[in-house]
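batch job 7 of whatever, protein = Transcriptional regulator
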Amino acid sequence: MTVETTDLFGVCPYFTTQKILAGKWAILILHHLDGQTLRFKELERRLSPITQATLTKQLRSLEENNLINRKVYNQVPPKVEYSLSELGESFKPVLDSIEIWGEKYIETLDTKKD
């Protein structure tokens, strides 16, 4: 008897996390929203060369998974801001660990060049 991978969502912590962060830009979006609220265009500039469609898709996915908040202001022109949710804030130690590991990995790349 085999287990379908769709049956692993919400059961296996590794599969669940991988599924939530599956988008190419998800971790970078969470990084940029860490400790600040940003508008769509601000995120788009920081994540260049991301396309509007891709950013929209990633933001929707992160919002659906309760990692970010989307606040819409009733004004003209429309104003929408994004920030980390409480659950997204709890991801901060993971982001910090990714940064530390990434820096160590980059150091190994530098030593291979020499």
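notes: Residues 92-113 form the longest helix (22 residues).
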